[in-house]
Amino acid sequence: MSEGSTDGRPDAPAAAPKSGDLRKRILSSLVLVPAAGLLIGIGGIAFDIAILAIAGVMAWEWGALVSAPSDRHRTRVVLLAALFVSFSVAIFVDVPAGVACAALVVPVSVLIARQLRVVGPLWVGVAVVGTVFPALALVWMRSYNDFGLLTVLYVIASVVATDIGAYAAGRTIGGPKLMPKVSPSKTWSGLGGGMAGSMLVAGLFTLIHEDARGAALVPLAVAIAVIAQVGDLLESAVKRHFKVKDSGSLIPGHGGILDRVDGQMTVLPVVALAMWVSGRSVLQW
To answer: How far apart are CA 173 and CA 221, in angstroms?
Structure first.
């Protein structure tokens, strides 16, 4: 969810996006957004399998991101095994059981990585957390009684609107940097634009959904924008640590899957936890 990291080197100043990159972003979005909307609408086992497949690509990218080339194969095997075990429990038992399994799998994955002599085994644990928990949160929210579909649409739309608002405001307004040592392209104006985009989605859902209340959704929208920005910065920090620009090259103009879901990785678990504690969808607050 970056405002524009098109530079080829992690430590170089951010450059304006090339028109070719912008065209690639638009074309990729025209393909990805309808496909994602269709899967969310279908729900059920097809949705669960699709999320498992996407999480598998995330695990694959994490394996390349946090490991040395000589350790890449072993790291990916550990990550994919952790994902498969957690998802199997979630699908065949229930999602809370899958989350509990994932919590156990994290330290086990670190121990296995250490036994396999993977360099930086703690990063394997980070990768498991960044892959499994957001995916399980999304599966759980989609299956949440009668509000699952609209809840998922609302949360994802809020993060996407945050992304768009941050990109637009950061490029047009600019100004002081948010955390220049972590991500030179991100600005305080971008954060404000992201909040505005998320609040716009909150306003729309307040109008179209009779149970949605602006008094609850507007502050929630601000929180979602901030949490999404945190996820973006965390992924930027990891990439900067490992001196890479993108997590992958799967999506033209965007990089890898991780580059597109960095905000979702932090927002989805937090929203799911808030729903579990409150016993209600965020649209019913």
So the answer is: 22
